Structure formats: structure tokens, C-alpha cells
Amino acid sequence: MRARVLVVDDDPSMCDLLRDGLTASGFDVTTVSSAAEALSEVERGDHHIVITDLHLGAEDGLELCRTLNQRLPELPVVVVTAFGSMDAAIAAIRVGAYDFINKPVDLQALALVIDRGVAHYRLKQEVSRLRQQEATDKGFEEMVGDSRAMKKVYDLLSRLDGSDAPVLIEGESGTGKELVARALHQRSDYRNGPFVAINTAAVPSTLLESTLFGHVKGAFTDAKASRPGLFVEADGGTLFLDEIGEMPLDMQSKLLRVLQERKVRPVGGTTEVAFDTRIVSATNRDLEDAVHRGTFREDLYYRVAVVTVHVEPLRNRGKDVLLLAQHFLLKEAERANKKITGFSAEAARKLLDYDWPGNVRQLRNVVERAVALTRFEEISVTDLPDRILDFKTTQLVVDDTPDHMLTLEELERRYIERVLSAVGGNKTRAAKVLGVDRRTLYRKLERYEATSAKAGDARAAET
User: Fold this and answer.
1) Cβ contact 325:378 at 8 Å
2) Of 329, 341, 334, 427, which Cα lies nearest the Cα of 376?
3) Burial (CB count <10 Å: 0-12, 13-18, 19+), residue 394
4) Confidence category of residue 236, pLDDT binned at 50, 70, 90
């Protein structure tokens, strides 16, 4: 890209001289005759460097330099001064000039100054871009991976910056849904508030209401003091409702009302308390299927799943396995005070071949175990558990002998089962992969269940 130079001088002959000479040196030159015109030009943001005379008629080139430095500190300004005017040169540097050059102007020397100034400008622009990118990427620090699946997650999270829309995070257990929730929190306007997480499946149904909404003193036997509840504790921040698909139906209706009203009434209380909390939920179940089966309220589903983020299982993320393994290795090695640099080629291949039913959580466990066991600076296959070493990838193979030929329906059933396994049992995603609508998939699955039940009854009758 040709460097774009703005020349500011009230002498038309000097403007012509600099324009012709610098153009011949390969620069794209624009000339103006006043500070006002110069400021108007740079506001367009398409110049890499400014060359200004010290004296612009009644105007002061130093003042222009100071103004430019205040408005656009990354834009270099070169001041042209009278020969031998060292005081003026020092004054120019003090107000932010990148460099100065004496009259009469040596065009070759000026071209060198411009080259250095433009390189300096581009470097500062790149540093600024990286800083901005670092700020933009805040919240992704623990989310490791550059697979297509993870890039889709990063892109969706970036598009949600500044939004307070409720988000539902879908994915198998151990895929890192809470990390996604924390990233949403860090990139939201609620980042300065608390991040409060609760696994709703881990709280007894009898205590879930008071845990979420709070209770007043004496509301029940053990209520010896009032408690605000997690919705109020998370006020100004984010409340992460993990495993929301396990919530009992009666609790779902109460949660729906709270989300609609943005107020909670503590158990045993008579007044409602308002809250301003971002709601992020997560599930390892197919909630659309749960709605279809009547185990999850449809109105609550649409309330918590305004935006849905799907986290792919680790087996679908390719070489992210090795990136994550190395990430965990460095952490565990530091904690164990061991010098371990990486994995042997054979160990890496075993990690890639394994299907990781426990996802990222299982991988971290395997790496922690390997770090504890290894006696060398590299993790070898002997440091990996037997279930990984003995794992064999399975493929759907049809034997071409007559005794093992499959009917088309059986082949279809097996393929549907494999697709369901690959997407973690999510029937909505399986239907998309198979190219059918959800109702068609449901009918096929119900038919398979009915066929299996009949076969089971027939076998029972034979015995």
C-alpha cells in the first residue's frame, strides 16, 4: 500500500515541490494551505503522516502539531523548520512532533523520514488493534480451541456483546458450558457484577425454591434467619442456571413467573424484591424433545432460550483435543513442579483416536493422571490409562455374506443411532444432520421402540 502523505504549507510553490518530489518517490500526496484544511483532511482518517511547515501565515505549525497529537496520537507529524533553528525543533518535539527537517528540504532525506514515520504509524496501529482485540477477546482465556465448532461459538459470543438476552447453552456433560457462561458474563454489561452459578439438579427440589428466591425467618423449620436467594445475590450480574432441564415442573412454573416479572417473593414473605440479573442457562438434555414429551414447559423454554449456544462434544472437535491437552499439561506440570514439555507422537495419536465420552472434563482428568505418573519430560503412552490405549474406533460395516446382510430399515436404524450418539442424543440436531424434520425422526424412533418391545415380548413368550 502506498503511504499517504498530507503536506501543509501556505506557500504554493513549496506545496508543488513537495508533491512532485514525493510522488516521484512513490508516495500518495495531498496538499493543503492551512491548519483548518489539515484538520478537516485528517478527520477522514486516510493519511499515514503529516508534513507541516512551522509557519503557516498567521497560523502556527506548532499549534497544529499539538492539536493533531491530542486528537490522533498515533499519526506522526514532521515539522519543517528554518535551517539551524534548533529551538524551534526542540519546541516541535515537545508538542508531539515525530521528527523535524530543516529547510531547504532535501527530498531524499525527507523520503527516509516519511518511511520511518509511516512504519512507526503502522506499528502503533497494529499495537492498538491487538490491544482492542485483547479487550474484545476478554472472557475467552480458558476456552481453548480453534476448530470450526469453537470458532462458531466465539463468533456467536462476540455478536452477543452488550446484549442482556437470556442464553441457553446446550452440550453434553463436561463440554465446558460453564466456561461459555462465564465468557458471556465477562463480555456483557453485567461484567462488574457477580457471577453466581447453581447446578439446579444438585439441589433437592424441596430446597430449590428458597435457594433461588430466598426465604424469610421462620418460613420453615430450619429458617433461623432470612436469606435473599440467588436471584437477588446476582443482582447487577449474571445468574447461571446449570442443568435447567432437570428442574421439576412445579418449579418451572414459578421460575417462569419470576423471569416474566423480574421480581421474586421469598418463601414465607409478603413483599416482592426486584432484581436486575442476566440469566444464562445450560442443559445436557434436548429441551425441545423434553417440551415434546411434556417434561419441560414450552413457555419457559422460549423464555430462557432467546439465544441458543451449542457446545460440540470433544469427539467432534478434531485437533482441539491436543490443544486442550497441552493447555492442561502446562497447568498441571506447573502445579506438580515438574518439567514436562509435551506428548510423544504415539501418545498424541492415542488422544486423537479416543472418543472422549466424558469430554473436556475427562481429558483434564487423563492429563492430570499422566503428569502425576510420568518420570520423563514427555508424556508417553505408558502414562495413559488402559481404556485409551485399548480403544478401537468403531465403524458401521455391513458384511457382504448372506447371513449378515442388513435390511434397509435396520441399516437406517443403525445410522440414526450413530448420528444421535455423535450429537449427544440431541434429537433436534440429529434431525438436521439427517435432513429430516423432528416429527419424522420422532416417528421413526417410536417405531424402533415399538419393534424392539415386540421382539422382546416374542422372546419372552418363547422362553
Assistant:
1) no
2) 341
3) exposed
4) very high
